[in-house]
UniProtKB/TrEMBL annotation:
GO cellular-component term (any): membrane
Alphabetical list of Gene3D superfamilies matching this protein: CRAL-TRIO lipid binding domain, N-terminal domain of phosphatidylinositol transfer protein sec14p
Molecular function per GO: phosphatidylinositol bisphosphate binding
CRAL-TRIO domain ranges (all copies): 79-245
Leader sequence residues: none
Pfam families in UniProt: CRAL_TRIO
Species of the source: Chironomus riparius
Highest taxon listed in the record's lineage: Eukaryota
Record's protein name: CRAL-TRIO domain-containing protein
Amino acid sequence: MSDIMKNLEKLIEDNTDKLIKLEDWIATQNHIPNNIHRNVLIRYLKVRDYDLEETKKLIDGNVKFRIKNKYLFTNRDVDSEDFRKLLTSIHFARFPKLSKEGYAIESIRTANQNASNFSLKEALKLTIISHDTHALIGPNNNGIIQIYDASEFTFKHFIKVVSSIQAAINYTQYGSGLTYVQPKQIHFLCCSSFISKIILMLKPFFSKEIVDGLHCHRSGFEKLHKFIDKECLPIEYGGTNGTFEEHMENTLRNLQNNRDYINNDENFFLIS
């Protein structure tokens, strides 16, 4: 077992009393599943600085948001035709090494300039699937860095994003205080005028923390390396830690291995 996973187990052990109280409270809630794994519960607690009452509010808000916006949180089979098509249009990877601050790092990029199979809703859904999977199996982290690589982003991609902008707004609202995933930095690579316009549309829905951590890079990786060490990044981003393709294969393998967990909506919300 890695030191990072041992750290997660120690967090759980050190907070057993709070976890028991949290589980007792959950048992009284008709819309919250009783079987939320402690690996997930400890992340909720950590985000709220182990304050039990604030953690209850976060879990309640998370579950209610999932119920209200089910289109982002259901039909999540990574073996489905929708996802197979999506992965011809985008690449997605969670990089294995945490940043020096202890942040997880993930990247989503347009695979090519053909936007015919691109779907913003499915792409956002894929990132949530990854977050839910890694909350169960991933190491303890202090937040997440998201990299959006728009090197192959075209006007046709832009039109599809604008036509689904409500999904992006909902995703932004979710990430701005309704989840155990804490966005610490968001980096846009190859930040064109199209990307700038999308950011402008979404900015009113960003939390202050997200706005403060938002960075646009028009070309090169020098500025990115000021925030993220090269040893944490793949060679495609001027790093030294493997290739994007290797990390994507490992990420998709993790999603596949936890497919049954993700596909069972009752692991995440209940409708009474």
